[in-house]
Amino acid sequence: MITRKDQNILLLDTSSKTIEFSYQKDGLFLISERLPQSENADMLIFHIAKLFNEKSIDLKDIRYVSLSNGPGSFTGLRIGSAIAKGICFCSESKLIEISSLDILANKYNGAKKVISVIFSNTKTSEFYFCEYEKKDGKLIRLSDYKKDKPEFIFKDGYDIVINEEINTKLFREFENNIRDLSGISNSESQSDLTMYAIENGIFSDYNISEPFYMNDFIPNI
User: Fold this and answer.
1) Least confident among 2-6, 43-47, 189-193
2) Rounded to whole angstroms, how far apart are CA atoms 101 and 141?
């Protein structure tokens, strides 16, 4: 059985305005950083190299690279994907891709079922979303990943979780059900989902990996 010990994991999240990365060794976070919102994803590799050097961590020690692989910021996801691929190639580590919708939903600790929502950056005011519930602390996905307008997203008995500021006027009818989780780091949530992937042998081929929405979400034109 795989445990959190002996697992050197680099976690990368460039899917939103707040860029995060963490390094986990033997179940402990040696690094957990959120870049200032004034810095873009193109600064990520600089901060990784800087902190790895300060803490005497060798990139070759990494066994797994966990990437929040979208949907989200087009530019951020492309940069995060390129960095993850490069590190996997150099360190011979395995790539694990986690949906940013899953990571967001997994941060929710309420009693209701939950819909995670990420702005799609289209001109149609549509959002990527997915429905979930938690049973015994385990995140269970209840729907496919979808894209639609706010009025078709909300359901009775659900809370809506967001990870960055959105135009709440679009969700005015459901504003009492919106939970802004942007102040909570994604690291713990992403780590939990990453361990599940490791335990179940769910890995991606970094040679052909692309941000999730590139193939699975086609914006309306």
Assistant:
1) 2-6
2) 10
Which tokens belong to 164? 């960055």
Let me know how many helices (H) and strands (E) the chain has, helices first: 5, 11
Cβ neighbours of residue 94 under 8 Å, at least 6 residues apart? 63, 64, 65, 88, 203
Do 159 and 109 touch, CB atoms closer than 8 A? Answer: no
Residue 101: pLDDT band with limits 50, 70, 90 = very high
Quick check: 75 and 103 in contact, CB under 8 A? Answer: no
Instruction: Say whether pLDDT at 221 is over 50.
Output: no
**C-alpha–C-alpha distance, residues 120 and 164, integer Å:** 12
Distance between start and end Cα atoms, the chain: 48
> Above 60 in pLDDT, residue 148?
yes
Position 121 scores a pLDDT of 67
pLDDT at residue 142 in the model: 97
Number of neighbours of residue 175 by Cβ within 10 angstroms: 11
Confidence of residue 166 (pLDDT cuts 50, 70, 90): low
Tokens of 119: 């702005």
Phi and psi for 106 in degrees, rounded to 5? -70, -15
CB 207 within 8 A of CB 92: no
